[in-house]
Design a protein that fits this description.
The structure holds two protein chains of two kinds. By secondary structure, chain A is of the alpha+beta class. Chain A has two domains: about 5-220, PmbA/TldD fold, CATH 3.30.2290; about 225-440, no CATH class. Helices cover about 25% and strands about 40% of the residues of chain A. Chain A has eleven helices and 18 strands. In chain A, strands 3-2-1-4-5-6 form a six-stranded antiparallel beta sheet. Chain A is globular and about 70 Å long. In chain B, the strands form three sheets. In chain B, strands 2, 3, 4, 5, 6, 7 and 8 form a seven-stranded mixed beta sheet that branches. In chain B, strands 9-16-17-18-23 form a five-stranded mixed β-barrel. Chain B has a two-stranded antiparallel sheet with strand order 13-14. Chain B has eleven helices and 23 strands. In chain B, helix 5 packs across helix 6 (about 250-265). Chain B has helices at about 10, 45-50, 55-65, 120-135, 165-185, 250-265, 290-295, 300-305, 365-375, 405-410, 460-465; strands at about 15-20, 70-85, 90-110, 110-115, 150, 190-205, 210-230, 230-240, 275-285, 325-330, 350-355, 360, 380, 390, 395-400, 415-430, 435-445, 450-460, 470, 475-480, 485, 490-500, 500-510. Chains A and B meet through strand 1, strand 2, strand 3, helix 2 and strand 4 of A and strand 3, strand 4, helix 5, strand 6 and strand 7 of B.
């Protein structure tokens, strides 16, 4: 088997051509992943794996299909590819389905995204165990601790793609994350629990393990004596970590597939002022060391910065080549990279002070949103905001409304961007939100 | 395209939390022929499939346990899956997938070493075995030189494997589903149909000399309907799933699914949001088993209890509900999505009564927790694939019939809602707080159904909600939908069911809070 992923991808492209495919796009992946989990003073789990995969998109006679396998044995690849072409031929033709045109991938940026830290591959058992012990020592340093699990996760992923119309590309990235999940004795049979992890592509950028574990412990301690909050309409402050997932929900229908399928409340709002002018969202694949940085997307489209929402106005949505053709929209990219959310001047403390009274959300629990209408209802945990400060812990509450309406009432944004997510959001403040509790 | 692995765990749920979802519509799938590997003498069809023999497996087991082991297993798996998509009137997208590999696990006490390889050659398997064994530092245990095949299960045997069903046979079914949906109402603008099928072979060799083989079919069809009236658009869906074969898709079964999807979509044009706050909640029979999955099922998985992190950790033998409440996890229900002949540690999967007549009776155990509690495993050790170590999971979770009727329950509600269909749920194991998202339901006022409702999240506390189950009807049924449970980054298929139930108080997400 060729050790070079690019060569293997090219070999698969050649095989598909011989099997009668008109066009083919092949991607080969390889990853090494190591997990250490350490609980209550002892190593609990070590997982050390190398995974691989081949993914092909086949275009034949105006028809299209995709195929994956973990079996990269060269003797069997020809069979896999010819079977894939045969499946493709059994489908119905689709005039909108074509391989990514060359002009979308020919002008690829050449930025050095700095996604590889050579020291990750050098990590050994001793370093991982040292982090585990450090995390464990801090995380268990409280009389209420029932159990604490420290985790260290690191690895390297590699990918290479080749296409029948001349695309060749490869990428490599490392990661290293660590943190703790902590469970504390609470009233009656209840346990208070929470966790915190930090990570990134480079080991040197990680905060010290004891600081990470301390954050996890503080988060868990803040859940003690939590009670069900009240039913009321009030201001909602969403912390930066929880804001990232709320923005993710907002953006779920922001793509050409949903729009073309009639399942997006964004569709009639493109080009319009849809949200509060405090809301700005930019998709930025070119952030150095960014968690989702890339030079090309899953279809090979060259990476570029794409404004999605500018001061409340929807300027772009995610458009891939297929649904772009179907919906008559110019392709942007079919999948999100990093998302930068516009920030304000105030710290979280200043936001809470300005708000005075309300609910401060620190995590979500379940819930969902309807992409077609924007109606949503989410479970939450957090604190009451009392006299401009974080007050008593509350949980077992829902927040309910419509996402477009909610983001029209985005009143303030903080300056406190949460760094451990590909959605880089500050804390967000919304007016007049419906909460249900007691 | 394949997602990049390094970020996978960021999307997974943190420990202590678990989620249940209806399908993402593009799960992977395959139609490849067997990948028999030459060079060894086949001893049974599974050995032949994976290209190994008893001696090879014994050699790998010996290497795996060279530094000691209480439990060890070698988990061979080959799965292939196929999916088809109908959108805008044509079936123009297919996907096939093959996943093949072997997972190697060593357990000492509560410590686990895990590795896998996708290259089923002896040198690769031995290297992975050495990696997994590094967790241990003791002396070699006596590994079996041969393995005794366990009897094969019969919960989901098929006459025609999915590999032998061509696209030409499936395509007319997708077309028929679309045509039936479009014919139901002129307001329907779009219909999408998502098909998936798959076959999975697993072969598990254990340190105590068992060789367990299981062949697991799975299929699911989902129909998504989008309708427009004036400026308003609504989307709804329905799906059916089972460990079944092609002949299961009768016109009657598909028509019922289409009717559900269309009804759920059209009713949303009239549906309202209830007022925010606490109220009586009726859970309709079937899919409302989501309550059991979240409110008690996860909290009864013994990994959380051996660590002391579940709210149920100290409740064994105590009264947790009224005497007419009995909650069961049962894997041996033929052809159910959650059914299993054997779990993924090679133990016979069966019936575990978690709550019997209101008393907490048994956790769901894997090998690790069973050893710690000095009990027999309950056959609850499951894994997503060879890429993961097993842990305690649910299979088919349901509540037995009770003494009341559905009509009595509705009549007993002064101000509340009926929950009928769901998209997802989640639980916090330690605090016991859980949620489920109600897509469709009804408002109930003074004992009468008065209006349809939609899109509300319900949140409650597990033990408190169990205590508040004040009525249980006699109409228990399992849901036919394709549920998938996610825990610590591993997804497994599950089933759930329940009779009509009244919970006297839960917090309903609603509008117009004052």
């Amino acid at each position: 088997m060729p050790v070079n992923l690019k060569d293997l991808a090219q070999q698969v492209v050649d095989l598909a051509g011989n099997s009668g495919a008109d066009d083919v796009w092949a991607t080969v992946t390889n990853s090494r992943d190591v997990e250490f989990e350490f609980r209550d003073g002892a190593l609990e789990k070590v997982k050390d794996t190398t995974a691989r995969g081949l993914n092909i998109q086949v275009f034949a006679n105006g028809r299209y299909s995709t195929h994956q396998t973990t079996d990269l044995n060269v003797d069997r690849l020809a069979g896999f590819v010819s079977e894939a072409v045969a499946i493709t031929r059994a489908l119905e033709p689709d005039e909108f389905r074509k391989i990514t045109p060359e002009e979308l991938f020919s002008n690829r940026p050449t930025d050095d995204l700095d996604l590889v830290d050579a020291s990750v591959a050098e990590l050994g058992r001793e370093q991982r165990m040292a982090w585990c012990r450090e995390l464990d020592a801090v995380a268990t340093d409280h009389e209420r601790v029932i159990s604490a699990t420290a985790g260290v996760y690191d690895g390297t992923s590699r990918s290479a793609s080749a296409s029948s119309n001349g695309f060749v590309g490869s990428s490599e990235a490392t990661y290293c994350w660590y943190g703790s999940n902590i469970t504390l004795k609470d009233k009656d049979d209840r346990r208070a629990s929470d966790g915190f992890y930090a990570g990134g592509s480079h080991v040197e950028t990680l905060p010290p393990a004891d600081v990470v574990a301390r954050t996890a412990l503080d988060r868990a301690l803040s859940r003690l004596d939590s009670e069900k909050g009240p039913t009321l309409k009030t201001t909602m402050v969403v912390d930066s970590r929880s804001a990232a997932s709320l923005i993710g929900r907002l953006l779920r229908p922001a793509n050409a597939r949903r729009v073309q399928q009639g399942q997006s409340y964004w569709a009639p709002l493109i080009g319009e002022k849809a949200f509060s002018d405090k809301l700005t969202i930019v998709d930025d694949p070119l952030i150095q060391r960014g968690l989702n940085s890339r030079l090309y997307d899953g279809e090979g489209i060259s990476a570029k910065v794409i404004p999605i929402v500018e001061e409340g106005v929807i300027s772009n949505i995610y458009v891939d080549t297929y649904y772009g053709r179907k919906a008559n929209m110019t392709p942007t990219t079919g999948s999100s990279s990093n998302r930068r959310i516009g920030t304000g001047e105030m710290s979280l403390e200043e936001l809470l002070g300005a708000v005075g009274e309300g609910v401060f959300v620190t995590s979500w629990l379940g819930g969902n949103a309807d992409n077609t209408t924007g109606d949503f209802s989410l479970g939450l945990r957090g604190h009451m905001i009392e006299n401009g400060k974080i007050g008593r812990p509350v949980g077992e509450m829902n927040v309910t409304g419509n996402l477009r309406d909610l983001f029209s009432r985005l009143e303030m944004v903080g300056n406190d961007v949460y760094p451990y997510s590909s959605t880089l959001s500050p804390s967000l403040v919304f007016a007049d939100v419906d909460f249900s509790g007691t | 395209m394949m997602t990049i692995k390094r970020r996978d765990f960021l999307g997974s749920v943190a420990a202590g939390s678990a989620i249940l979802t209806m399908p993402g519509f593009l799960s992977g799938c395959g139609v490849q022929t067997a990948t028999a590997i030459a060079g060894t003498a086949p001893e049974n069809p599974f050995m032949e499939w994976f290209g190994v023999d008893q001696a090879t497996v014994a050699r790998v087991m010996s290497e795996l346990t060279a530094r000691g082991a209480d439990v060890a297993d070698v988990y061979f798996q080959h799965s292939r899956s196929n999916s088809l998509t109908l959108e805008d009137g044509i079936v123009s997208r297919a996907n096939s997938g093959i996943q093949q590999g072997v997972g190697l696990r060593v357990v000492i006490g509560e410590q686990t070493g895990y590795a896998f390889t996708e290259d089923l050659t002896l040198p690769s398997m031995l290297a992975a075995a050495r990696t997994a064994s590094a967790i241990a530092s003791g002396s070699k245990v006596v590994a079996p030189q041969s393995f005794n095949p366990s009897s094969s299960g019969d919960l989901y045997t098929t006459t025609v494997p999915w590999a032998d069903v061509g696209i030409d046979q499936k395509l007319p079914i997708l077309k028929m589903v679309e045509a039936k949906a479009k014919a139901r109402d002129p307001a329907i603008e779009k219909v999408a149909v998502y098909w998936s099928d798959g076959d999975e072979r697993v072969m598990i060799a254990t340190l105590d000399g068992r060789l367990v083989m299981d062949q697991r079919p799975m299929t699911r069809v989902t129909v998504v309907v989008t309708a427009k009236k004036g400026d308003e658009t609504q989307t709804g869906y329905s799906n059916i799933a089972a460990r079944e074969e092609f002949s299961w898709y009768t016109e009657e079964r598909l028509s019922k699914m289409v009717d559900e999807a269309v009804d759920r979509t059209m009713i949303q044009f009239e549906a309202i949001r209830p007022a925010a706050g606490e109220m009586q909640v009726i859970l309709a029979s079937g899919a409302s088993g989501i309550l059991l999955h979240e409110a008690i099922g996860h909290g009864m998985e013994a990994d959380f209890n051996r660590k002391g992190t579940s709210i149920y950790s100290d409740m064994m033998g105590k009264k947790v509900a009224e005497p007419f409440v009995t909650v069961v996890d049962q894997a041996d229900i033929p052809r159910e999505r959650g059914a299993l002949n054997y779990d993924d540690e090679g133990n016979k999967a069966g019936r575990t009564v978690m709550v019997e007549n209101g008393i907490l009776k048994s956790y769901l155990h894997d090998e690790i927790s069973a050893r710690q509690y000095d009990m027999k495993p309950t056959g609850s050790g499951r894994r997503e694939s060879y890429r993961f170590a097993p842990m305690p999971r649910m299979t088919c979770t349901f509540m037995e019939n009770g003494p009341h009727t559905k009509d009595e329950i509705i009549a007993a509600v002064d101000n509340g809602i009926i929950c009928e269909t769901y998209t997802n749920g989640q639980v916090q194991i330690g605090a016991g707080d859980f949620t489920f998202y109600v897509k469709n339901g009804w408002l109930v006022e003074k004992g009468k159904i008065t209006a349809p409702i939609k899109d509300v999240n319900i949140i409650g506390n597990g033990p408190e909600s169990l205590k508040r189950i004040t009525m249980v009807a006699n109409d228990a049924r399992l849901d036919t939908g394709g549920w998938t449970c996610g825990k610590n980054g591993q997804r497994v298929p599950v089933s759930q069911g329940i009779p009509t139930v009244l919970v006297s108080k839960m917090t309903v997400g609603g509008e117009n809070a004052s």
